[in-house]
Structure formats: structure tokens, C-alpha cells
Specification:
There is one protein chain. The protein is α/β, with parallel strands linked by helices. The protein has 2 domains: 3-25 and 86-245, Rossmann fold (3-Layer(aba) Sandwich), CATH 3.40.50; 274-410, Toll/interleukin-1 receptor homology (TIR) domain (Rossmann fold), CATH 3.40.50. 40% of the residues lie in helices and 13% in strands. It starts with a helix and ends with a helix. 40% of the residues are buried.
Length: 411
Amino acid sequence: MHPVLLRLYRKALANELAIAVGSSLSDPKYAIPTFAEAATREFCIDFQVEHPLDYFRLWNEFVDAAEKASTRKKFAQFAVEYFRDAHPTEAHEAIARIPVSNFIDTTFDRSLVTALIKEGRQPRLHQWMGESMGGWKQTNPDNPTVFCMLPELNPNPTFFGLHEPVRQHKIKIHLANLEEMLGGRDLLMLEFSGMEADWILNLYDVATTGDKLILYTEHSADDPIWSARGVLVQRASINEVVERLLPSEPGQYGALDGLFPRRKLIDISRKRQYDCFISYYSGDRDFVDRLDRDLKLRELFVWRDQREVDIGDPLSGRIQEGLTQSYCFVIVLSPEALSRPWVIEELRAAYAMRLAGELKILPLLHKDCTIPPFLSDYRYVDFRDAGRYEESIALLDRSIKNAVMRAREKK
């Protein structure tokens, strides 16, 4: 697999990927330049451009001219009727099946939102003067956040009309929320022109946000704006990347996904082999299997008994070795786990190492239970709500990495 495609795949599996769609993925009729030309004919608007893509750069000026030639309400009503019959393309429907939790839409037709709903997902929209929500870092793929960069069409227009609000009204809170959502993620852009990316997506403002910005395109790869904004361009069909990001089975990523080496490089400066040791009750194995996989996708080394203890090994010796070779001890708390002598023994051994300053304990609350008194002062990661799993795994990932970093800094 191409290294860039592999990176995007790994990011998607770890839910650390945001996807931006624009006019080029919609039916050509619903692209902003085509709509602008139709509106020009309808209202005899006196507005000239050298190239249709200039409408992206000059969109707010065009809206001013359109409202002057008609009225704000008539122009908005025309837009509502124009986009009424918009429907998702095959590209939208494929993207809507990628189980990540964050999307950006720079269109009026909102075909991606329609495709997400059609797929059975319930998008949470952040759009101008319409529905908005907090928690920009929410990570539930079933209820993905969709940031809409253009206002919602309304026959009775709001304060914004059809303007692109960030530049027209100098309102930066939308960008601040967007930047918070993109933090720690790659942004995958699909078939954007430089004009649309800079003037509708506001690429200039978000270019320093997140990890990497990657564009897949067959038409705009030579635009110098990409290198100026730090965008990595892949001259390829979007089908190549979308097909690779789709799960093996419909719905969420599962056991058949993510079959690649855990790490690309060996870190010779590590003093211990594992980032975390997971202690759990065998009846919670399905949950721990998912936890284990998702931590590995985030580039963590995980110790588990079923993988590290071979037949014939002395169990207590191998577990003690696992503890001494780990930076963190993650205990999966459930009523059944806390009734098992072996789990309690592992916890006591870990607690003794914690008192000696050799191990960080990270409690993980999987099911309602009475937390042992000596753990009552510890902050735990709450996994009881399945709908907040992605948010919880991100917190656990960050906690483990912070503990490992601090431990290594002490050496």
C-alpha cells in the first residue's frame, strides 16, 4: 500500500481523520460556479469573472451584486428552488460509509449530510444560524459532526443571506471550533480546487491545524496554493482512497480491518518494552479485544496475557515480567473482574510498583462496580457508555502517552 494511503487508513481506523467534501463531488449542476451562472441569467446580474473558479474567490462580492439586482429574499428563494432536487452522488454515498466522526462540507446542496442520514447515521450539524452544537472533539461515528462552511438555504434568509460568513462578517468562532475539531487529526480533502479550498473551506486559516492536510485530486494537483498551505497532493482518483477507507463489513471497523504491523520503526531509546499492561476478567474479553486493537492503532505497545504468555510458561513469572516491562497498568473494572483473585493479585502487584514510583495505574471503568478503596482517589476513564467509546479511547490514549513521556523523561 502507498505510504500516504497507509497513513490515512491508520488514521481512519483510529478515528483520527476528518474528511472535507466540496462542489466537485456533487452533481456539476450544483457547483457554486454553475449556480452563479444560472443566477446571473435569472436576475441579469452585472458581474464578470475571467474563469468560473473565480466565483469561489469572489463569492461574497457576487452575492452583493445578486442582492442588488434582485433582493436578498428573491435571491435566497431562487437558491432554495435551485438546490431542492440535489441528491447524493455515488462518491457521497461511499464517503458516508467511512466510520469516522468528523466531516466538513463546503456546499449548498448538503449532499453528504443526506448520504449520512441515508446510511443510518445521525449527523450533528454546525452551520450558520441553524443547528449548532458544542463538543467539537466528539468522536462518535454514529453521530458524526459535519461542519458546514456555507449557510443553510432558507427562503426567508437570515442575517448572512448566502454570503460566506467568515470573511463577510469577520466571525472567527466557527474557525476556532473547526480548529479544535481538527486537532490531532489528518484532514483529507477530496477533489478541491485551490480557489474553493482557500475561499470557502478557509484553508489559509486552518492550514496549521491538525497533523497533515492531504488532497486527492485528478484535476487540481498543479495549483501552487497547495505547497503554500502545506498540503500533500496525491494525483489520483478519490475512489482509490475512499475504497481503502471503507470497513471490511458494513458499519464500524472490525476484526478484519487494521491488519498491518503495529509500528514502522523500533525506538531504541525505550527502557521498557510495553506502554501498558492490561488486566481484565476473561469474560470481558470482547471489550478488551477492541480496546487492545484501538490502542495499537494509536501506536501503543500493549501487554496481554493471552498474547504474551506461552503454553508452559510460569504464569506468575510472565505476568511479573510484563509489569516490570510496562510503563502503565490499565485495569478493566467490572464486578466480575473485582471478584477474581488473579485480577486482584495483578492489581496489588501493580499498586506496590506504583508506590515505588515504577508504574502508573490507569483505572478503566467498563461496568458499574464498587471501586476498591485504594483506587478511589484515582481518576478513571469511563467506558460504560458505548456511545462515548471513541471519546473515552482518545482520553485513555492521551493518558498512556503522557505517562510514558513523563516516565522516560525521568530516566
